[in-house]
Design goal:
The protein is of the alpha/beta class and 218 residues long. It contains 6 helices and 12 strands. The chain has 3 domains: 67 residues, Histidine-containing Protein, Chain: A; 71 residues, 2-Layer Sandwich (Histidine-containing Protein, Chain: A), CATH 3.30.1340; 66 residues, Histidine-containing Protein, Chain: A (2-Layer Sandwich), CATH 3.30.1340.30. Helix 5 packs across helix 6. The chain is flat and about 55 Å long. The N and C termini lie close together (7 Å).
């Protein structure tokens, strides 16, 4: 088990290794395996990349992401320009249902709203706009409204997906399902397994929300 000083060093090394991140912009503190990222980054994309890189490090139990996006003068765009770019990006993404997603922009922050049938469409809408120049952040208020499926069937489909896709034994994961609302509890051995379990749960027909309470242990 790594102590906090070793974990801090490893996170700093991983941020330095990640080519899409300038580690000099980011401060890293660690307490009890919980990593806090602070500082200013020039793009929303780099902010997300820093969080992903941190989660790759073995021993990280949780990430408190307090990074702020500080755009350079050349990267600043007006809300109207960002809204127009977001509309085009959503229209041109084949995974985003046409005319189902609305992008509202205020102070360079995009808020997505609308009703869709699958979570992958929700994620695709976020991915379509998060790389746009001038964006400081994205809030995803889209709702998944899938056809209702029996609770037992939802649970059985998720369990089958775990058996097919997870690299480690999924017996330690419990699944609660109620009218399309799913909760995952238990322990996994990495953030990759944590995220893969969430993806598997979201992929089941009839799932409307997923609350991923899985604890990463080492």
């Amino acid at each position: 088990m790594k102590n906090d000083a070793d974990l801090q060093r490893d996170v700093l090394d991983e941020l330095k290794w990640e080519p899409s991140v300038n580690e000099e912009d980011i401060g890293v503190t660690v307490r009890g395996g919980v990593v806090t990222l602070t500082g200013n980054v020039p793009t929303y994309t780099e902010k997300l990349a820093a969080e992903r890189a941190t989660k790759r490090v073995a021993g990280v139990r949780a990430v408190a992401e307090e990074l702020k996006v500080r755009l350079s003068n050349s990267a600043e765009r007006g809300d109207t320009d960002i809204a127009q770019a977001a509309a085009y990006a959503l229209d041109w993404n084949v995974f985003v249902p046409h005319n189902k997603v609305l992008a509202k922009v205020e102070n360079a922050w995009i808020t997505l709203s609308g009703d869709i049938e699958w979570n992958y469409q929700r994620e695709a809408a976020h991915d379509a706009v998060r790389h746009l120049l001038g964006v400081k952040g994205v809030t995803n208020h889209m709702h998944v409204k899938s056809p209702t499926i029996l609770t037992g069937e939802v649970r059985s489909k998720i369990e089958a997906a775990f058996k097919r896709n997870m690299t480690q034994d999924a017996d330690g994961i419990t699944i609660e399902a109620n009218e399309g609302n799913v909760k995952l509890n238990g322990k996994v051995q990495s953030w990759e397994e944590h995220d893969d379990a969430g993806i598997a749960a979201w992929s089941a027909p009839g799932v409307k929300t997923v609350e991923n309470n899985l604890e990463v242990t080492y």
